[in-house]
Input
Amino acid sequence: MVRDLFNMDFCLSWPTSHFLHRFSFYRSYYLTTEDLINVVSFEWDQNGKKIHASELAWQQYMQFNPLAAWFKGRRLSIRNDLVNLFKD
Output
């Protein structure tokens, strides 16, 4: 049902397996960005659509969560959409 609503809203025709994979990926993306932004010394730049922190802060966090390296210096243009989708 959720897949059908999603497909209808976004004019897609994803099969269930594809939808579940993408949903899982985007939820992980959302949770990681939220974790990063909630760490002291990390902040969200709404204009640049990036997460900013010092090099030292990035290095320390990436020891804890190596997947965070993907977000370093990247423009995260879909973050606000993911917040609307997954928040609460």
About this structure: The beta strands are 43-45, 50-52.
